[in-house]
Amino acid sequence: MGRGLPPGWSPAPLPLPHNFRLHAGCRSPFRSLCPALLQARAPMLPKRRRARVSSGSLSSAARFPGVAIYLVEPRMGRSRRAFLTRLALSKGFRVLDAYSSQVTHVVMEQTSAEDAICWQESRAAPPAPGCARPVLLDISWFTESMAAGQPVPVECRHRLEVAMSRKELPSPVWMPPYACQRPTPLMHHNTILSEALGTLAEAAGFEGSEGRLLSFSRAASVLKALPSPVTTLSQLHGLPHFGEHSCRVVQELLEHGVCDEVERVRLSERYQSMKLFTGIFGVGVRTADQWYREGLRTLDDVREQVQRLTQQQKAGLQHYEDLSSPVQRPEVEALQLVVEAAVGRALPGATVTLAGGFRRGKTQGHDVDFLITHPQEGQEAGLLPRVMLHLKQQGLVLYQQYRHCHRCRDPAPPTRQSHTPDTFESSFCIFRLPRPPGAAVGGPQRPCPAWKAVRVDLVVVPSGQFPFALLGWTGSKHFERELRRFSRTERGLWLNSRGLYNPEQVCCWVGRAAWSLAHSFCQASCCGRRLSTWLQRKTSSDTWVLRTSPQSRETPESVCHSLETQGGLSASQAPWMPSATGHLQAEGALLSKSSLFQVVPRPLCSAPHPCPPYASPG
Asked: Has 301 been annotated as catalytic?
């Protein structure tokens, strides 16, 4: 028995075929037995081929119908491509076997961007009408999507983009951080992006989130100033005021043409109600929020509680349809003629200046602002009631709210930065504007009235404060906010609608000459802090006096002496030099400051370095 076999065990006899023979000279009978055994073995079954997985049978079960993936086989391998296809189909993705116009995501492995572009250009499958070309992606996007169980957002690191040559690269865009330092045209290249961010800013204002409102507003302002449309997120790198949230919104708009967050805000009940309520004349964010918390949602809900409304809100609700429709520029021109005629009858020589968005170049708006002044300061006192009397006699005033002037004669510098409105004599009105002949035509069931209600603000300003009032009432709101932030942060000055102030001095007062506001900021930074005196104009006169600061021991006589010695000027000459006519571009309009004046004395610059030149935003 063989070694290692259990006792009592014997192998079974091996069945031999009937034609078995032991050849002569064969040392072992099994040498000829092996071919015979192979012939006697049962025939082998053919190897089953693995069926190819087609996306057509599983397309109906796809969880993400908006994503169609095509896996490029070269450098990936047939077996790996088949494995990745089965993996994607098991997770609900749609994978196409052939490259076609339905493909939205092309995934490649170990492929350079140049090779990917060449491969895509060699395909004879142009995109369907209205569809963009599929994105070329690295395998990293596919693996991250499989791990997440859903398509992950496409980032720059996923894309196979060809680096542009230096000749094709656009010049780097340097964007100043303040809106008052850059142009903001009415017509720009990124309207969709800026409007989306503006919607989020408006919604943040409704929620009382001042920080988010400023963040989105500043990002939208940067988009308006860009010289070209934004096509990739990389164009925003290095630009100010673009945080993670704003970049995410822009990226989603660039990839899908719509942002889910923006659409969700626009369709929300709170946003629509707040926007409706704040559109009523006399209703602010706080009042609208209170109404919403009380369950009010529509104008009919507000009309049911008319007893709790103010007179201003009642007038706004009564003429809501007219006031919510845009005011066109021809209507503004007609209103200006009416106001100029009434002002001329009340005070000959007084001037009427159009302000607001129409001064910035807009063709339509929701209200009209007029500034009224007189060359001789003091003559404008009590002018507005006489103007309103003439307008009422013509039957043009539907509603007015008069506000008296406070502290217009004492331009004391503000103690702190505040957002309170200016204190000019003003009247917030609703005018009855006759429609031009042929325009007052309506349907048989709802005839159109022969007049239209229009919001008009009349503001009376002393001539000495008119330049700053004109700047403040021209807007826009974000531009004015940025301009005051720039003056306070960068120049150490306080700016409002009545003047430009140095908190370290008693007063920085105003007069009549030619000046550039932005250039005066520059001069104030280099000169104003090194001077202990300021020029101040006497009321109702053309003479100027020097007013020293409380901390200074200098007298006007000593300052005049220093003017002669340092500036080379005689005491009879003006101690300041008017600058050339300045320009300021705000939302597309070139605002000429020819009627304004230079605040800080230019020849007295004792700074070790010259004042930096002002770069016009236009």
From this structure: no
Tell me: the pLDDT tens digits for 254-267? Answer: 988 889 999 999 99
Element (H, E) at 343: helix 329-346
Sign of CA dihedral 228, 234, 240, 244: positive
Q: Which amino acid appears at position 168 of this protein?
A: E
Residue 455 sits at the vertex; the CA angle it makes with 452 and 461, to the nearest 5 degrees, is 140
Residue (of 347, 366, 349, 348) closest to 357 by Cα position: 366
Active-site annotation holds for 369 = yes
For residue 117, the tally of other CB atoms under 10 A from its CB is: 14
| 3-class DSSP string for 356-399 | HHHCCCCCEECCEEEEEECCCCCCCCCHHHHHHHHHHHCCCEEE
Condensed to tens digits (0 to 9), the pLDDT of residues 132-156 reads: 678 888 898 998 999 888 898 888 7
Higher pLDDT, 524 or 173: 173
pLDDT over 70 at 118, yes or no = yes
Query: Is the separation of the CB atoms in 184 and 223 below 8 Å?
Result: no
Q: Which helix (H) or strand (E) holds 327?
A: strand 327-328
CA distance 85 to 78: 10
Angle at Cα 46 formed by Cα 42 and Cα 47, nearest 5°?
125
Q: Render the burial of 84-97: b for 16+ CB within 10 Å, e for the rest.
A: bbeebbebebbbbe
Q: Which pair of tokens denotes residue 392? A: 């009422």
Strands (E), 489-537: 494-496, 499-501, 533-537
- 422 is a catalytic site residue: no
> What are the φ/ψ torsions at residue 454 (nearest 5 degrees)?
-135, 135
Catalytic residue among 138, 367, 410, 542: 367
Tokens 């990226």: give the residue. 251
Q: Where are the beta strands (DSSP E) in 394-543?
A: 397-403, 425-434, 451-460, 494-496, 499-501, 533-537
> Which of 485, 487, 424, 494 minimizes the C-alpha distance to 459?
424
Decide the pairing of beta strands 425-434 and 451-460.
antiparallel
Q: pTM here?
A: 0.58
In the prediction, which pLDDT does 172 show?
52
CB 465 within 8 A of CB 509: no
Angle at 153 between CA 148 and CA 156, to 5 degrees: 125
Task: Mark out the alpha helices in 133-243 (DSSP H runs).
Answer: 139-148, 191-206, 210-225
Catalytic residue among 138, 289, 322, 369: 369
20 C-beta neighbours (distance < 10 Å), count: 11
The HSE-up count of residue 42 (CA atoms within 13 Å, CB side) is 3
Q: How far apart are CA 465 and CA 471, in angstroms?
A: 10
| Residue matched to tokens 């706080």 | 286
Bridge partners for 21 per DSSP: none
CA distances from 498 to 421, 422, 470, 471, 535 (A): 11, 8, 10, 10, 16
